[in-house]
Q: What sequence folds into this?
């Protein structure tokens, strides 16, 4: 759909369509709906990013906690959101060797114990080898660094999900 169609959506439909651009956080599109009309996809994205940036640190951590573990139980039993399933399988999280799966599970657990939120990375921009490497390296970061890094990854995921829902108008990029 184009931005004109987005702007014409009633509240409930807008929230239904955009409710998972930030994983399991429909409150975000609910909040930005009032900022319509959006002049472009970029303006919609900016409204969402500004909402996220304005959250207190606890709210940002809350957004991170809405994300599933990569290659975790939800992927194995099929309870991921459609978007997360597609992103994780695209990155090879469903095709880990037994050794990789064990390492991923161990690192996910270590990360959550250290930071009290799951590891978040834009799977669509990475492959399984890079995800494992990043998870291992990021376990060593301070909490504030990881919170900020996780939120930046959420924004990347959001941007790509929005691009999958809204057509870009080449004449109106602002």
A:
């Amino acid at each position: 759909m184009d931005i004109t169609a987005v702007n014409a959506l009633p509240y409930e439909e807008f929230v239904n369509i955009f409710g998972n651009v930030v994983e399991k956080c429909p409150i975000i599109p609910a909040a930005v709906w009032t900022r319509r009309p959006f002049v472009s996809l970029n303006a919609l994205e900016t409204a969402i990013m500004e909402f996220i940036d304005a959250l207190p640190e606890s709210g940002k951590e809350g957004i991170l906690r809405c994300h599933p573990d990569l290659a975790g139980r939800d992927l194995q039993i099929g309870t991921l959101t459609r978007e997360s399933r597609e992103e994780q399988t695209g990155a090879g999280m469903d095709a880990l060797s037994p050794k990789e799966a064990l390492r991923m599970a161990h690192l996910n657990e270590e990360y959550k114990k250290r930071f009290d939120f799951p590891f978040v990375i834009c799977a669509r921009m990475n492959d399984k080898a890079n995800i494992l490497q990043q998870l291992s390296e990021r376990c060593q970061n301070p909490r504030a660094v990881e919170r900020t890094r996780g939120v930046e990854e959420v924004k990347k995921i959001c941007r790509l999900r929005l691009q999958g829902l809204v057509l870009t108008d080449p004449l109106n990029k602002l």
Notes: The first helix runs from residue 3 to 8. The CA atoms of residues 21 and 162 lie 6 Å apart. The chain has a mean pLDDT of 95. The chain has ten helices and no strands.
